[in-house]
Amino acid sequence: MSEVSYEVLFNSAPVPLIVTDTKGEIKLINEHAVALLDDKMLAFSGLNFCDFIEKSFLKDYIKTDASFSFEDFLEIYQTEHKYWVKSKAGTIIYADIKAVLFESVEQSLYIWTIDPIEISKKLSYELKERVKEQLAILKVVEVFSQYPDTQTALELCLPIIKEGWQYPEVTGVRILLANDEEYITDNFQRTEWLLQAAIKSEKEQYGYLEVCYQQEVPAYGSSIFLYEEERLINILAKLLAIFIERWQAIEKNNADALLLKKITSNIPANTYQFEILPDGHTKMLFINKGNEAFNYDYDYIDIIEDTTGTTEVLYEADKAKVHNAFLEAYKTKKNLIVQYRIIINGIIRWRWLSAIPENTADGKTIWYGASQDITPFVDYVTSVEQILFDISHIIRRPIANIKGISKLLKDIKLTESELHHLSKLLLTASEELDSFIQQLNLSYEEKRKLNQDFQIDFSALVDKRNNFFDARN
């Protein structure tokens, strides 16, 4: 085949063809390539491939300057050789610039072709990008829902966010929080090719989400980032804000719960949050043991799951009374106040339970209250009663004797022998009274010591009472 035949074949190719040497000097150009030029009459003898770019519509999509060389173009070509461009006809095409290096003994040549692919390829490409963006959003939500640990979740989000951009291989991501915590991909460097969005809720800003290209990539129109990517970073920043706000709320609730438990563990009472069921039984929502010397010997986690442990320690005679008190509180929705006895290590102890109701938005009634050991108070009142009994019965006789003798001495004239006799009787009555008082003092002192150590057994006393706090008894 002659050289003329090859030239005819070259010009008849259905795509633009350009032949350059390794320095970019144009050796051949066909009519389809010339059609891409602003000036079709331009002579190409001795011109460079960069001149072709500068004098065609490609100059709007491949950024050049005065120092731009063929070597620079080859470097860009290695990164990206597909561009969305507007053709001379005004239609958007997907231009794929391809090159083949032909080497012979005499010389090496590049054969270039600009292959325009129509809108269907563009739609396919855009669909692929939209799928990547949606997957980034869905996977970030999935990470947030699976990992309660903030640090782990944020670290796992970085590669997911990175994959949502056009060129993930040169994309760096950073999450910078207001407390100076930083989560970054290994390749992150802040560059001029930056997208940034504030991570904020309605009330608070938590930091920034930044996405950078680590090197220049082909621009789409006038921006290196797609409009959809600018929208994507704002959506992702909003998601980060929502979940950081939720995490902070959970952490605050946990801290408040820990503080409440610490406080309630150091008061002389058991604290409760519970529901009363229609049958009078309870559903424990919260329970914490105080620092009382006498208390239930149960695992409180078990009590929340099964409240029968509390009724087992109730004194048998008080079980019905306590159950009825709970039933009454359920029906009336009024304060629950009940005194009852329990058995701890074989010893009967008195307790006082008081709880107030609160209606919730979902129609339930929750009771909040506490119970205390009031055995020392019972003992105090019992001791006062005993003292009154002792005064009215035990020391009544010597006092009556002293009073009668004193009246005789005052009202009647007595002989010396009668006075002497009455004096002996008065001394005997006084000694008897003194003896009783000393015995009572020893008895009260012993009771006081027992009360301080909480080691007194009241079973003999309380078994005879229906309700110590009922004024009718």
TrEMBL record:
Report the InterPro entries cross-referenced here. Answer: HisK_dim/P_dom, HisK_dim/P_sf, PAS-like_dom_sf
Native species of this protein? Adhaeribacter rhizoryzae
Entry EC no(s): 2.7.13.3
The organism's superkingdom is given as Bacteria
Quickly give the catalysed reaction. Answer: ATP + protein L-histidine = ADP + protein N-phospho-L-histidine
- What is the name attached to this protein's record? histidine kinase
Report the GO molecular function annotations: phosphorelay sensor kinase activity
